[in-house]
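ARCHIVE CARD
Drawer: 12
Card no.: 0347
Subject: one protein chain, sequence and derived structure
Cross-reference: see card 0346
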Amino acid sequence: MKLLKKLASAAALTMAFAATANAATVINDWTLNPLGQGGAAAGTVVNESLDVSGNAFIAINATGANTFSFTESAAFAITGKDGGLSLGNYAGNKVTATFQASGTGTFNGAFTFTGGTINIYSGADQYGTANGIYGANTGTLIASFNVLAGGGGLVDATGAPTGNGQVSVFAQALTPGGLTPGYFFNSAGVDLSTQDILSFAFTNANGTQSPSSTAVKEIACEFGGYSGPGCTSGTYSNVPGQYIFVGNNGQFKLAEAPEPGSLALFGIAMLGAGVVSRKRAAKKAA
């Protein structure tokens, strides 16, 4: 118990220090230009974050009596910015994203990501259709991020995110070429494709009992490799402890990448946050 207290205290201290260092790197008042033409002046200023909404298919594999591994495949639409403000029409272009990641977790505990990829696209509004992967990857690829180890959230005894469960994802732009020139700019109008960039996604995840047939075929079957009912025949339904659909909505933020040492410290801080949150959850359950 003393060791756990010392570990939690040290992790919390590390988190506080890392958060202070990381706070200065978060990018505010940056510009997104969905058309990629005309520079920053032709784009929309994002004060803090993009609003995201989407569907995810999660395949769960038990690895022990209380542990599991998982893969998540998802398609997202960028629905606006800064909590409901419009991004603008931009000739009908829609900004969308695909997300695919893996990780590990503990039933009735927490899960964390071990790696993955986020790809962001801009193109004609086809989201929710059978084109590409749920219409989310039919435009021009404008950004690619590697999912960093860490993040995650809490799950119930079946491995599903807890009600309105908060999920965090931390990622780093692939270098070189993580951001396509002409789409992302800082407040000074400098193209962010020339810099090392991090992304932070914070979403609320809730189980979806009756996903549309298009979502099942496109996200679960085509993207996630699922081959059960709903792909060609039969009716899809979630199977607790094996596979589930979830709906997500939340925020997507950008930050300038800190020095390598600071980035490692940030990862340790996230691990510490998980220790503290699990300890608090255990106290509440007692």
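Annotation on reverse: The helical segments are 2-23, 213-223, 260-285. The mean pLDDT is 85.
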